[in-house]
Design goal:
Blueprint lengths: L2 H22 L24 E6 L7 H11 L2 E6 L2 H9 L9 E3 L4 H4 L2 H5 L1 E6 L1 E10 H7 L9 H9 L5 E4 L5 H15 L7 H15 L2 E5 L2 H10 L7 E5 H8 L8 E4 L7 E2 L2 E5 L4 H14 L2 H11 L2 E2 L24 H15 L3 E8 L7 H12 L17 E7 L3 E8 L9 H13 L9 H19 L4 E8 L9 H9 L3 H4 L3 E5 L5 H11 L4 E2 L4 H8 L4
Parallel strand pairs: 1-2, 1-3, 6-7, 6-8, 13-14, 13-16, 16-17, 17-18
Antiparallel strand pairs: 3-11, 4-11, 5-8, 5-9, 5-10, 5-12, 14-15
Helix pairs in contact: 1-12, 2-12, 7-9, 8-9, 9-14, 15-16, 15-21
Length: 551
């Protein structure tokens, strides 16, 4: 019996009582714990508190959760994670005792793993949004697609292969919208009528390669992807692939010339149903809180408000979707039948289907990095050269160009590697070992010429692009534990960046704060380049892996 059936079995008997309890509980009850907008999670279970590991897009439900606290006495504390990372957290037992429930756009990846399935006691789908393609209106007109209501995935793929459609999409190894898109196109191109198999993926591979030639932006999160879309050169990115709700919400903030027509391919979609799922490790008191919250969220008036607030579709029968949401539904395309098929599809995307990457790591090896800090850096980067990575989550990808720049008072050395494709002679293993050898050779001494070393990274990329004449996903990762105290200043760097060609200006820098790094300097670099600041204070390993979703 799957978890959805299990939930519905006991929910049918208890929902009326749950709703009655929710209605009876008012703000005049005993004071409830305060809401938790910051993402901090209580270390131990607390009566009336539900600790939930969730997708970051659930932040838009905070007003509903505030009202739920008043109506039910249940305070929801949200900690955020990517969907597939969250599935790993549950499957490996790291969520046991730390969280009471999970709430991601979908649990399809988690359900493919027996260990993961056993960790979930019950689940309640709360709202629905299909993956769709938001096409800039001017591009839609050029393609002759009318209002977009009759477009197929094949047409989208053909337009991408012909260079007529470029788009941004989140990384499927981290984000459920990217994973759902990958599953949707593989299912549509293969014509799979049931659970997706390895043979289906092989059949779809030629069309998948064509489809992904159009991907010009990648991201580990939907929020950063939307920001990158607005910063992109005019004409470079004509579409975004994401949930229908994200695209419609984005239109609320975009100027008219950048707004998107939401295309739901007629041959089918993969939808998120946002199941609020109770973990089997939750205590009885938290299970009671879960039932009260789930019952509240399914009430008709709450479902209506959720739809109007988030532009997702209600799941409670009889509740109309928010104005502007289409009332018809596309058929659901089949998902992978096993975890092996899903992980194989993800690894194929990273190493074969998507455009290759060009990544430059600018690494602070000044004197303050000596000792444990340098060892942490070597360990974290060394993990990116490992082979124990079933879905291409962290390892340097096949065909990726990786440049390491070691700097202190000046650039010490620059070394570049290109990882061969799997199956070639020699394969990727030897080059990955060579990258790791360079990483382990890092030595700490000297000052911190941060801005000058960063400028050198841009010059390296310019030379590489001219020599190769290619168009790769390109980014810079800057890791430092201090403040720039030699060479060019922040004002010098801004002038340098202003003088870059337009294509190079859009290369994002992802600074990593480590140790006593100057946050203002690093945030300024991220802002100028359109990148994102990461904090390596908790786990340098985890930060380097997280950044992989943006490269």
């Amino acid at each position: 019996m799957n978890v959805r059936t299990k939930y519905r079995g006991w929910a049918a008997a208890g929902l009326a009582a749950v709703l009655a309890a929710a209605s009876a509980c008012t703000s005049s009850s005993a004071p409830a714990p305060r809401p938790n907008p910051t993402g901090a999670i209580a270390d131990t279970p607390t009566p009336g508190v539900l600790r939930v590991l969730a997708g970051s897009e659930l932040q838009d439900l905070q007003p509903v959760l505030d009202d739920a606290r008043k109506a039910t006495g249940v305070t929801v504390q949200l900690a955020f994670s990517g969907t597939l990372d969250g599935a790993d957290t549950v499957s490996t037992g790291r969520a046991d005792g730390k969280y009471d429930a999970i709430w991601f756009p979908s649990d399809q990846y988690l359900r493919l793993d027996q260990a993961g399935r056993s960790k979930v006691l019950s689940e309640t789908p709360v709202m629905v949004s299909p993956v769709a393609v938001g096409v800039r209106s001017s591009v839609l007109n050029d393609l002759g697609w009318g209002d977009g209501s009759k477009v197929t995935w094949a047409q989208i793929g053909d337009a991408a292969a012909a260079g007529k459609l470029s788009y941004g999409m989140s990384d499927p190894s981290r984000s459920n919208s990217g994973f759902s898109t990958l599953v949707a196109v593989a299912s549509a191109f293969s014509g799979a009528g049931a659970a997706l198999t390895e043979a289906d993926v092989q059949k779809a591979t030629p069309q998948l390669k064509q489809f992904f030639t159009g991907q010009k932006l990648t991201s580990g999160s939907s929020g950063w992807l939307a920001q990158a879309y607005t910063r992109a050169e005019p004409g470079k990115v004509g579409a975004l692939v994401n949930y229908e709700s994200v695209l419609l919400s984005l239109n609320r903030t975009l100027p008219p010339e950048q707004r998107l027509t939401v295309v739901r391919p007629v041959d089918g979609v993969v939808s998120a149903d946002y199941p609020l799922s109770l973990l089997s490790s939750a205590r009885p008191s938290e299970r009671d809180s879960f039932q009260r919250l789930a019952g509240y969220l399914l009430k008709e008036d709450v479902q209506k408000r959720i739809s109007e607030l988030t532009l997702r579709r209600p799941v409670t029968a009889g509740v109309a979707p928010a104005a502007g949401l289409p009332t018809d539904r596309r058929r659901e395309l089949p998902s992978p039948g096993t975890r092996a098929v899903a992980d194989g599809l993800l690894a194929s995307y990273q190493n074969e289907l998507r455009r290759p990457s060009r990544t430059v790591y600018v690494l602070d090896t000044s004197g303050s990095m000596d000792g444990s800090r340098l060892n942490s850096l070597k360990t974290a980067l060394g993990r990116l050269t490992g082979a124990d990575d079933t879905r291409g989550l962290r390892r340097f990808r096949d065909r990726e160009q990786v440049t390491l720049i070691s700097f202190a008072s000046q650039v010490k050395w620059t070394k570049t590697h290109v990882v061969p494709a799997s199956g070639s002679q020699p394969g990727p293993e030897a080059e990955l070992a060579s990258i790791n050898s360079d990483v382990q050779s890092l030595r700490a001494e000297g000052g911190t010429a941060l801005y000058g070393s960063l400028e050198q990274a841009y010059r390296v990329i310019e030379d590489q692009q001219k020599a190769a004449g290619d168009d790769r996903f390109t980014s810079i990762v800057l890791m430092t534990d201090g403040e720039s105290n030699e060479g060019p200043t922040d004002a010098d760097f801004k002038r340098f960046h202003d003088g870059l060609p337009s294509a190079e200006k859009t290369i994002p820098v992802f600074p990593i704060k480590f140790g006593e790094a100057a946050v203002s300097q690093l945030q300024g670099i991220a802002d100028v380049s359109g990148g994102k600041l990461f904090d390596g204070g908790g786990s340098l390993d985890g930060v380097f892996e997280e950044i992989r979703g943006y490269q």
